[in-house]
Amino acid sequence: MMAEALPPETPREVLMPWMAEQQKAAEWYRYQHNIQEEIVGTMAEHDISTLALKGTHIAQYYPVPETREFGDIDLYFYDKHDDADRVAHKYLRVRVNNSSHHHSKYNYRGVTIESHYDFLNTHYPPSNRRYETLLKELAPSATFEVLFLLRHMAGHFAASRITLRDVIDWTLTCQALKDNVDWTLVQKTIRQYGMESFAVTIGTIAEQRLGQPAPLCAVDGAISSGQKLLSRIERDIVYGSIDDHKSDGITRLGWKLRRWRELAWKRRMVYNDNPAILAISSLTSHTLKPHSILHKQ
Hints:
Number of helices: 13
Distance between the termini: 36 Å
Radius of gyration: 20 Å
Strand content: 5-15%
Order of helices and strands: HEHEHEEHHHHHHHHHH
Mean pLDDT: 86
Structural class: alpha+beta
């Protein structure tokens, strides 16, 4: 199972480390999965429903779920996230960190858990508040999964970068759920929030570079992905548009301002909010959580 992704003629000096890494990834996946089941069970004992998001949930759409590595476990507790934090503190005996707008965080038996207050960061951009309302109306459903994952990916794209794994995640999710998704609503939402060129380009990359069927919402013929834009996004996925900054302090603030300026083209692709309102929204969000200004989250 672990070596199926490599061609038969792969040299032993490549094959053996590959298999070892795959085995480690599978073992870690199973450990994280057990941790998630324990937390879900604990919450259920206190009448708290749980919805798994992103990595742990998306893995089921991979041919071999154990090969889909992920870091944090992202959980959503509907309208009981405060209760979930109290249960985690009392019964899991963890210290809960509430320094983020979007989720609380704690470490349980070596695994980082993010308890989401909402599906999206509703402080930025402003349009996320309307998008969040739609997601809450749809969850849990196949249409919710496709729209949530697309907006989540768009947010990472606009703020920094995405990776091939993000493209694969969304493509496999769309493919697995295609018969149960309201594609008319998906296409309408993509147009309404100005994400057409982004969705189409990501679908084109999936089809042309990864050999995967383009998601149905990206092939309605409403817009085509130009080669220049396609190449730019492919380079960005592989290399990024701006180097990361590891340090804290005032130099990080300068780097964040430079990043904001240089990533304007990405924000235009995924947000149709007024640019001035976007800037004010970002500043307000950081002001409410000042630790996020000078320190790496």
